[in-house]
Amino acid sequence: MNRFRVGLMDPVMAARPTADAFTRANYLAAVANRVDSYWVPDHINGQTPRPLWDKKYTVAARLMQSPDAAMEAWTLLGSLAARRRFSNVRLGVGVTDTGKRHPAVTAQAAATLNLLTKGRAILGIGPGERVGNEPYGVDWSRPVARFEEALATIRALWNSKGRLVKRDSPYFPLRDAMFDLPPYRGKWPEIWIAAHGPRMLRATGRYGDAWFPGFAHRPEDYAARLEIVRSAASDAGRDPMSITPAVWIPVITASSRDAVDEALDSMSVRAWSLNAPAEFYAHYGAEHPMGAGYAGMQDHVAFTMDEQTITEKAAQVPGDVVRNMILNGSPADVLEQAAVWRDHGVRHLVVVNFGPMGPSLRTGLATLLPFNTVVRRLKRL
């Protein structure tokens, strides 16, 4: 895979006046900009603390119903598939998790989407986050072990060729299980794995078609972890270069540096930066406001904080941490930063516009054209 590819992530929050207004607009922009992939995250709730869902903190509060009104990913992907008859954009879930969904249901959903899109579906998958599982009664004690068993279950069902499947598992035992949906022209959806820790990286090398982590990495950390993925693939008898190195990173871009800095310094963006693990903060000489050893998104609890606590914690986030979690600046600046990631191994970059997260409607709207410019030019890297 030599050509640099570009994807666009959708926020999937129910909007006004119609629930899918932003998703439809984002998807049409993706098609117009000729991106390679379009992604829908799979969450029950959102990532923005409720006390910050106020127009004084974010313009999104004027436009979307709730920070937790996340639309169901597979239903939304089916809707997009029905609209994509003349588009070659691949559709991916970025990512579903193996806690709240049984892998047989995930295998069925992904295989169905693959048939509807004529082989252009991508199954992005990971262990999930505590906030999307534990409040709903899902055991969070061994998420990686559950993840490994789920992947093995999906592969077993896809490879069964309609035969009854028996498989022992502490999480997902199969007892004469039937799976007879066909692959599209002999091919199942690619599996893109959101892996960060050593065990997950090795699982990616054994089972994945792509490595697809989110925040927060430094490019040099990404390159080192990519080598772990490739070594694990080689140990498993797979071609290590067949695994697509991908990543998703937010973007804040505008024509003026002042507008970019205003967005970066907004309370909502600073609060979002609490999702980085303590390890990432340490690279910039800082302790995580949530405490040493905080795992970031995996242990995200900021949504339960009151307004005073979350604003105090967000105010403690160093500017260096915020800037290094987000591609930011003019379009030329963003492209230069993206090129660094390319040089450290990335071949498929998925982006999302974080410009509208700030409180200013004018500033948020001013990021739209520069962001589309970035998306178009990324494909030339």
Order of helices and strands: EHEHHEHEHEEEHEHEHHHHHEHEHH
Number of strands: 11
Mean pLDDT: 92
Overall shape: it is: globular
CATH superfamily (homologous) name = Luciferase-like domain
Distance between the termini: 13 Å
Number of helices: 15
Characterization of this structure:
Helix 6 crosses helix 7 and helix 13 runs parallel beside helix 15. By secondary structure, this protein is α/β, with parallel strands linked by helices. The chain has 15 helices and 11 strands. The strands form 2 sheets. The protein has an 8-stranded parallel beta barrel, surrounded by 7 helices. The protein has a two-stranded antiparallel sheet with strand order 5-6. The mean pLDDT is 92. 49% of the residues are buried. The chain is 39% helix and 14% strand. It comes from Mycolicibacterium septicum DSM 44393. GO terms for molecular function: oxidoreductase activity, acting on paired donors, with incorporation or reduction of molecular oxygen. Pfam families: Bac_luciferase (PF00296). This is LLM class flavin-dependent oxidoreductase.
Features:
381 residues; alpha/beta; TIM Barrel; eight-stranded parallel β-barrel; two-stranded antiparallel ribbon; 14% strand; F420-G6PD/mer; Luciferase-like_dom
SSE diagram, text form:
Blueprint: E1 5-9, H1 21-32, E2 37-40, H2 60-63, H3 73-83, E3 90-97, H4 103-116, E4 121-126, H5 143-158, E5 165-167, E6 174-177, E7 190-193, H6 198-207, E8 210-211, H7 219-235, E9 244-253, H8 257-264, H9 267-272, H10 278-282, H11 307-315, H12 319-325, E10 327-329, H13 331-343, E11 348-353, H14 361-366, H15 368-378
Parallel strand pairs: 1-2, 1-11, 2-3, 3-4, 4-7, 7-8, 8-9, 9-10, 9-11
Antiparallel strand pairs: 5-6
Helix pairs in contact: 3-4, 4-5, 5-6, 6-7, 13-15
Domain Luciferase-like: 36-348
InterPro entries: F420-G6PD/mer, Luciferase-like_dom, Luciferase-like_sf
Keywords: Oxidoreductase
